[in-house]
Amino acid sequence: xxxxxxxxxxxxxxxxxxxxxxxxxxxxxxxxxxxxxxxxxxxxxxxxxxxxxxxxxxxxxxxxxxxxxxxxxxxxxxxxxxxxxxxxxxxxxxxxxxxxxxxxxxxxxxxxxxxxxxxxxxxxxxxxxxxxxxxxxxxxxxxxxxxxxxxxxxxxxxxxxxxxxxxxxxxxxxxxxxxxxxxxxxxxxxxxxxxxxxxxxxxxxxxxxxxxxxxxxxxxxxxxxxxxxxxxxxxxxxxxxxxxxxxxxxxxxxxxxxxxxxxxxxxxxxxxxxxxxxxxxxxxxxxxxxxxxxxxxxxxxxxxx
Length: 305
Ligand SMILES: C[S@@+](CC[C@H](N)C(=O)[O-])C[C@H]1O[C@@H](n2cnc3c(N)ncnc32)[C@H](O)[C@@H]1O
Description:
Layout: H1 3-11, E1 14-15, H2 16-29, H3 35-47, H4 51-56, E2 61-62, H5 64-78, H6 83-87, E3 89-92, E4 95-98, H7 111-127, E5 140-144, H8 150-158, E6 163-168, H9 171-183, E7 190-194, E8 205-210, E9 215-216, H10 225-228, H11 233-236, E10 237-239, H12 245-256, E11 257-266, H13 272-275, E12 284-291, E13 297-304
Parallel strand pairs: 5-6, 5-8, 6-7, 8-11, 9-10
Antiparallel strand pairs: 1-2, 3-4, 11-13, 12-13
Helix pairs in contact: 1-5, 2-3, 2-5, 3-5, 7-8
């Protein structure tokens, strides 16, 4: 925003309804997806209010500084910056996570990784003739490529008796993950480790989970600008094709898991044909694939034979 424009905004009186309308218009003109929601979230962020307040007080006049701040955030969003990097937060598995440009923004489809892991752990209990009441007592879990720590935190919540190790090669991402574990109350049960894949995780574990980088560099130009220009490359690209990361990850998981241990991996939209053959006998058994809500093969799970 130019100095002149910002001076004008500071002088102007603007109410909630008008500000929101203007924000929505700017984002729509800039072809921002879900522009109404984005404008609402940015206004709520500036005002520190909730949505109910927003719609109950359309005539409330915004203090000049807030109006100015809101419109400058709208300009950032219009230029492609994701809403979550502007507000610094994203919800996942019912928790609020801090997100910065050092970490992937947690996606709703990644919640399927948690669901599959919990289902498969319960199934193992049933097969062993035990009640599927899952506290995860004594379970050692490794989350490879932990990013914001969203998977590690969700599993720590659901399995109160388990210990989780989250690995990442990005120290900046690990700093965010540590803060997320602490703010959600799990700092004592999640250890974060700067290492490649499972290297150094150092435990014989029962469960390895990962949402690895799985986009092909060859697809870069087809990605939304929000993703391509703002999310960390380390988190996005698995190689030229995208599926390259899985072979090393599966090989290391096979060495680290105890017999009968579980591997649960998120898949890219076209990763399955490359990944499924890596989970064959004699090393792996009980392979299952779960689709996401869009019908895409999203999660593959297997047991160490
Ligand atoms: C797709 S992101 C997933 C982040 C988070 N688990 C989630 O689901 O939102 C992949 C993560 O893997 C990390 N990563 C990339 N290469 C790695 C490697 N060789 N070893 C461990 N982590 C790696 C990236 O830094 C990034 O944080």
